[in-house]
Amino acid sequence: MLNLYREKTYPPRCPFCRAEVAKPAELAGGMWYEFEGGICRCGAVFAHDPTARNGGAVLLQALVQCCHGDWDEALSLAPEVDYDEGFVGHYNSLTHRLESQAFGTLVFIRRRSQP
Question: Quick one: CA dihedral 14, 16, 17, 18, positive or negative?
Answer without folding.
Answer: positive
